[in-house]
Amino acid sequence: MSVEPVKLKSLVKAAAEQVIASAPELTALDQAIGDGDHGANMKRGFEAVLGKLDTIGAQPLDEALKTIGKTLVMTVGGASGPLYGTFFIAAGDALSQKRSLPEDIVEVFARAIGAVSTRGRSQAGEKTMLDVLYPVLDTLKADGDRPDVIERVRVTAREAVERTVPMRATKGRAAFLGARSVGHADPGARSSCILLHAVCNALEGRP
Amino acid sequence: MNDTVGIVIVSHSKDIAKGTADMVRQMVGGEVKVAFCGGDPDGGLGTNVSSIIDAINNAWSTKGVAILVDLGGAETNSEMAVEMLEPDRRNMVVVCNAPIVEGAVMAATEAAGGSSLDEVRAVAEELSAS
User: What is the Cα Rg of chain A in Å?
Assistant: First the structure.
């Protein structure tokens, strides 16, 4: 499977529009355990990505990922800008080094997640986006050859968000709330799930 | 050469960043370049990479720049901003692990004496030693 330019463009468009449409939900989650800006920040960032859609669509995949990452870094603000930006930039860097999709998806995804972990000085289990990304990586490793891998990724991401509900945050703004962070899904985990679902749907040609 | 290390103050609040810069100027004087930024791209509370990059460039010195931050996102965004600088500038900017107000004043005081970036950082970070 190669990612055609037109498909890349429509995939990025679909994912960005999904995040933008989910801004109120992300804001509500972040108001519960953070500072309430995650929805607005993500919306601003992905609107900027939409604004660069023609550029992104004309680039090879590695450069397109870096453009998306840099755009998010410069426009999202908050802590999620550098974290999402780092994810896409690191994925692009990994792809630039003679790797290709989908064959090397596990390695590219692992490097992108590793970069996010380093940037946020965070590990799994701390109620962050990593608590969705690591389980999805595990699913890609275990089930990458199965025909239903995309559905498995979707289910993994959804269930992983639910598992952040009882977690106590020790990173990010939610950490200041300590025990009060328990009982709410993590906004970054949810936005990661939304993005992953949008990409899964686009890869299957679903709206 | 009498250039001094530049100081950048990054807070979630522009008012805190500006107030800290005002304190530095009053207590240390005008010989140290101080730049500040605060707020998200829409003007709310937060920090953003592009204004941090601008602040670093405004405070630029041949001796480098020390950044003082408040909460987590300010540090993450500052580190990201440093990585997005031109390669020859990246190694000449440090994010100090220090309280923002005291750290900025101490760092600027040390910088005013002509100290190196490492010395400025060390003085600011002594404040975090337990």
Answer: 16
Q: Given CB atoms, is B50 within the 8 Å cutoff of chain A?
A: yes
Distance separating alpha carbons of residues A144 and B82, to the nearest angstrom = 36
- CA dist., res. B57 & res. A148, Å (int): 50
Question: Within 13 Å, how many C-alpha atoms sit on residue A11's CB side?
Answer: 22
- Name the DSSP class of A176: G
Stated pTM of the model: 0.86
Q: Tell me the chain A residues in contact with residue B76 when contact means C-beta distances shorter than 8 Å.
A: 79, 82-83, 119-120
Contact predicate A183/A165, CB 8 Å: yes
pLDDT digits (tens, 9 = 90+) for A31-54: 888 778 899 999 999 999 999 999
Q: Where are the beta strands (DSSP E) in A7-66?
A: none
C-alpha–C-alpha distance, residues B59 and A20, integer Å: 36
Nearest chain B residue to A73 by CA distance is B49
Q: Is B115 on the interface with A (CB under 8 A)?
A: no
Beta bridge partners of B68: B9, B96
How confident is the model over A84-96, as pLDDT tens digits?
999 999 999 999 9
Residue numbers in B near A44 (CB within 8 A): 41-42
Strands, DSSP E only, in B60-116?
A: 65-69, 93-96
Q: B76, A79: Cβ pair inside 8 Å?
A: yes
Judge: B76–A37 Cβ closer than 8 Å, yes or no: no
End-to-end, the C-alpha distance of chain A in Å comes to 20
Helix (H) or strand (E) holding B7: strand B6-11
In the annotation, is B115 catalytic? no
A152: three-class secondary structure by DSSP: helix
